[in-house]
Give the backbone structure.
Amino acid sequence: MNKFLGSKILIVDDEYGNIFFLKRVLNSEGYATITAMNGLEALHKLEEEMPDVIMLDIMMPEMTGLEVLKRLKENEITKDIPVIMISAKTEANDIKTALDLGALEYIRKPVDEIELLARLRTALRVTRSELEIRENLRTKEEFIRIVAHDLRTPFSSISGFAQLLLEDKEINKFYSDEHLEFLGFIQSSSSFMFEYFNKLLNWSKVGTDELMLEKKKTEIKPIINSILLINRFKMQSKRIACLNNVPDNLYIDIDEVYFSQVINNLISNSLKFTPSGGEVLIDYKVSGDLIHLIISDNGPGMNEDTIQHIFNDLPVKSTKGTEGEKGTGLGLKICDRIIRNHGFQMQISSLQNKGTSIHIIISKGDMN
């Protein structure tokens, strides 16, 4: 049974005999067809109804198939419709031009019926896959929006109550200096998460790689020290030494909330994969016109395939930490996206069983 039964195909050809042949073949297989005798008529038909696939002849008077294809791909409404070019022209340059303009397939005349149906099914599978991907992305973005929205309120409450406790002079009499320090970090961390969820909501609305950054010159060392303090319990439980060699008065043009999340993810990742008694180093070096912020560990490292998956759309398999800590496999991908949106670059060097170093590479133009 044809799972694409009833799919709508627009046939564009200036020869009636070709249209008759294509209609007969497609209708006999259960496809619905729309026809147009030239490019302008095809564009007008598309204003009335949208096909699942367009079969487009190249050699037509007034407006060639390549000109029609260019118009289709420049139009937001029609740019995602798969186009199969059909033509007697067999020169490689014609095929290359059509594919460069966005055609999915190219069939030479005289058309072979079996080839035609096979290429049409390929085009329809592509259409269905793209629709499923878009729906999955929409669902993911909606999930992010709901989670971020629902978590903002409790973090806002935690921050508010911590602030009240800090400001209550009667209660403060019973706190040690360490208690006050912890309470201050509860307040600042929950405020940070509240702001981060606000930004996640904005990001999910955009639905692209483009983040709405609020950049300003920000000193980096206090951010790192704050994140190390937040992770102090994890460091103590695994007896990991963390050294922050980043100098004072190093200012970088960043969105503090997003960039802090990057540093937190990278440090947390290093702690996760560093064995008990190991070391995490946050370092800094100058290389020409570039500054490197480097976060290194002496954990098990990553293989080259894993590193390549981080920098493309392939999924990264979640790996447990040295003491069974769980993860999602998404942390470094998110870091890379935020870093790229800042105009920076992330590089990973890793040797298995020797450790990993992650470089955030920043132009001196982004510093004071």
Notes: Residues 8-111 form a domain with the Rossmann fold fold (CATH 3.40.50.2300). The mean pLDDT is 82. The chain is about 50% helix and 20% strand.
